[in-house]
Write a structure and sequence with these properties.
This protein has about 190 residues and is of the alpha/beta class. Helix content is about 30%, strand content about 25%. It has helices spanning about 25-40, 60-65, 80-95, 105-110, 135-145, and strands at about 50-55, 70-75, 100, 120-125, 145-160, 170-175, 180-185. It has a seven-stranded mixed sheet with strand order 3-2-1-4-5-7-6, sandwiched between helices. Strand 2 (about 70-75), helix 3 and strand 3 (about 100) form a beta-alpha-beta unit. The relative contact order is 0.17.
Length: about 190
């Protein structure tokens, strides 16, 4: 696994050896970033953006954002092994600022902690494929108003999953890669 583009292009990342964490493959991550940057439907700008990386694992998504000049990334992960790998990756890449790590449950953190923090330009959600609380998560993000009005939510799910999203969540695009499905969405105003 490596950083695909930006200031740290080519740097390799550590990944957890256990099976509890499912790293986002380079090919899928590259496609996600290409979609964000080059799709007429999204046209996202990383420079000076604030990113929320939920279920961060090794941090590959958020670290890629920082390599592309995001202002800050909030990593949320509650698996001890994954947090250790994330910290090793941050140290290896020598990031000194723009990093916030929350070793807690995603739902607890959004419910109790992040409501006073700045709103996010992009929220990346990569929960375990067996997790069935996606609609609840989308609703909580909406209710707590932590996404900018033109912000983007990206979901990484199993291609066989069939989420029922709230009617205020608009799917902008969906892409399939092997066993993965990537969904890009926004909240309707």
């Amino acid at each position: 696994m490596r950083i695909i583009a930006g200031e740290l292009k080519g740097y390799t990342l550590y990944i957890p050896k256990d099976k509890n964490t499912r790293p986002l493959k380079d090919r899928v991550r590259e496609s996600v970033f290409n979609s964000l940057l080059h799709s007429n439907k999204l046209s996202f700008k990383f420079e000076q953006s604030t990113i929320l990386d939920l279920y961060a694992g090794s941090g590959s998504f958020g670290l890629e954002c920082l390599s592309r000049k995001a202002k800050s990334v909030y990593f949320v992960e509650n698996q001890k092994n994954a947090i250790e790998i994330l910290l090793k990756n941050i140290k290896k890449l020598k990031f000194k600022s723009g990093i916030n790590i929350f070793p807690q449950d995603v739902f607890y953190l959004i419910e109790k902690k992040l409501t006073s923090d700045p709103k996010f330009d992009l929220i990346f959600c990569d929960p375990p494929f067996k997790d069935t609380n996606i609609s609840k998560l989308i609703r909580l993000i909406f209710d707590k108003k932590i996404l900018q009005s033109n912000g983007v939510i990206i979901l990484h799910r199993s291609k066989n999953s069939e989420e029922k999203f709230p009617n205020f969540f608009k799917i902008i695009d969906e892409r399939f890669f092997g066993i993965s499905k990537i969904t890009f969405g926004r909240f309707l105003s």
